[in-house]
Amino acid sequence: MTSVADQPEQALEPRPPCGTAVADDRAAPVPGTGAAPGAAPDPFDQDVLPAPRNAQIALLRSLLAPHRRRAWTASVLLLVQQAAVQAGPLLVAYAIDNAIPQVRQGQHGALIAVALGYLACGVASGVLQRAFIRVAARVSQDVLIDLRGRIFRHAQSLSLDFHERYTSGRLIARATSDVESIRELLTDGLEELVGVVLSAVYITALLMFLDWKLALATLVSYVPLYWAIRVFQKRSMVAYRKRSTAVAAVIVKFTETMNGIRPVKAFRREEPNDDAFGELNHRHERANGDAILEMARYVVGSRLIANVTIAGIVLWGAYRVAEGGMALGVLAAFVLYLRRLYDPIDRLGMFLNSYQSAAASLEKIAGLLAQAPAVPEPAEPRPLPEPAGGIPGREVAFEGVRFAYRTGGEVLPSFDLRMPAGQTVAVVGATGAGKSTLAKLLARFYDPTSGRVVLDGVELRDLATADLRRGVVMVTQEAFLFSGTVAENIAIGRPDATREEVEAAAKAIGAHDFIAALPDGYDTDVRKRGGRISAGQRQLVAFARALLADPAVLILDEATSSLDVPGERAVQHAMHTVLTGRTAVIIAHRLSTVEIADRVLVMEGGRIVEDGTPGELIAGDGRFAGLHQAWRDSLV
Ligand SMILES: Nc1ncnc2c1ncn2[C@@H]1O[C@H](COP(=O)(O)OP(=O)(O)OP(=O)(O)O)[C@@H](O)[C@H]1O
């Protein structure tokens, strides 16, 4: 039996270099549910999902849009701060060529003015930098909060179909390591990156002002430097994509193993898991090493270019000073500026590194955010009609439904079914017959490939999510409990319920006694010590949750785990309570459960092969009669 949380996570097998393969099909539409299997390669095999062209830029813009004014303020602060910083060598040149000769003639005014000017520039630069950091930090923190929130909200809004293929590990990587690399850029890298670019512009202008011939010679060095930066950018982008994919693979393996720690222990998977994790860890290490190597290549190359240029300029400048064609102060200022120009060049590699890493992360996040839910909200939702007088539940119909999972063949070839309001229907059949698929279509976890699922005449596709949630509830096998108290877990079905209503639901289900016996009763935290409750008790909590939600249609994926006899009896009793007064579909594994149904459907290969009351089917000579007889014999 397959239930929502039971779906095995797809193993992520990163295929570096991943980014290159995706770059070509950015504009490809994000496929919807039920695409023909086996056609094109699955984009979910890649870590970068297809996104519309320029999705990263659009994402960045939309993140920054609410902070436009503060971003402009930060830019102006940085602009003025850099002007203050770059005034220094110019003042030095003035001091050497004008102020010091004046001191020799006994006039100290100019030198004192230069010294005060230098001090003022230093103070202004410090004050402006502080103001810039404050403003920029606020913007970056707000952007990160927004981004993390968007990833969480979007991931939650995406359909089951997406989650079955993307894996939670990859989602965690998006929300943690990828957001972290954007944080690094925003908080540390961006200021330096913009600062370096800005100072390069200022310094170039000042060099031109000081001596245009030497400035032109300096400009020549920009050509190989630009080339070195471009090569570094291209190569490190690939390296960073690989690294980010490798990080995600490590996280995926980690979460997959820890989520499945019970089967891991039961099947002694520790050693093979260690090996697989070791390989992924090494892959991560190699990807990291490649990124560092790219950085090293760039630093060595750019330093070589810078040093050769400085040496050439000092030599030429010295000759010109010696010949009297240039003032010593100008050469001194020139060399000071050159040092300022080239010094941050290897740091520029580092900023570009964080920029590349952030760009790779942004690309992946943009790809994730570009995914549209395969089960979208209707543009114009239709309300459910008022319930017909006196009849509990709502009528359910499957009309010409066909369905295929995106990663498999057709599961329901052509399916028609009508369940009158208030009927309890038990669905039985061999494993893989399509019982859970039927339930998931009714809960609208997926939309049919063709045909429609209808609730009281309204197609599920046209129902607003809130109506759908109130109308149809599915209780899955594993009866998942969220972190929080028992009371909160029951109230999930109706968050505005009072404590009395929560307790009344628990009492009706027969869960009150064991809950009251927990260390803090209804306020016991289910994830803390003492809050551990058994599988049968978890089911009772899930039933109480469903009873409180009071949906018109309840789908119950009966647990296969065998309970002890009193436990089973308690669950059977609770099931009876929760089914009464609504349309109900039970995916039944126990034939004792079938007996409480009004109608039994036997499924095989996605089709209904028998349909009738339990009595009729037992009395007949079909599959169900055989199964029932075998069950009775086993009881004797
Ligand atoms: N998420 C999925 N992606 C691809 N194929 C799926 C998926 N879930 C189920 N299938 C396939 O659809 C078919 C029907 O599965 P379904 O879970 O509906 O059967 P079932 O009758 O509920 O079986 P069981 O009692 O074992 O849960 C099976 O062949 C199964 O392999």
From TrEMBL:
Molecular functions per Gene Ontology: ABC-type oligopeptide transporter activity; ATP binding; ATP hydrolysis activity
Q: SMART domains, alphabetically?
A: AAA (SM00382)
Q: What sequence ranges are listed for the domain ABC transporter?
A: 396-630
| Cellular component terms (Gene Ontology) | plasma membrane
The source's superkingdom equals Bacteria
- Where does it localize? Cell membrane
Where is there biased composition of kind Low complexity? Answer: 28-43
Q: Which keywords does this chain's UniProt record carry?
A: ATP-binding, Cell membrane, Membrane, Nucleotide-binding, Transmembrane, Transmembrane helix, Transport
Membrane topology (UniProt): Multi-pass membrane protein
Q: Where is this region: Disordered?
A: 1-47
**Main site of residence?**
membrane
Which parts of the chain span the membrane according to its record? 71-96, 108-128, 193-210, 216-233, 325-342
> What CDD domains does the annotation carry?
ABC_6TM_Rv0194_D2_like
Identify the InterPro entries for this entry.
Answer: AAA+_ATPase (IPR003593), ABC1_TM_dom (IPR011527), ABC1_TM_sf (IPR036640), ABC_transporter-like_ATP-bd (IPR003439), ABC_transporter-like_CS (IPR017871), P-loop_NTPase (IPR027417), Type_1_exporter (IPR039421)
Pfam families tied to this protein: ABC_membrane, ABC_tran
- All residue ranges annotated as the ABC transmembrane type-1 domain in the record: 72-357
What family does this chain come from, according to its entry? Belongs to the ABC transporter superfamily. Lipid exporter (TC 3.A.1.106) family.
Give the PANTHER family listed for this entry.
ATP-BINDING CASSETTE SUB-FAMILY B MEMBER 10, MITOCHONDRIAL (PTHR43394:SF1), ATP-DEPENDENT PERMEASE MDL1, MITOCHONDRIAL (PTHR43394)
Q: What is this protein called?
A: ATP-binding cassette, subfamily B
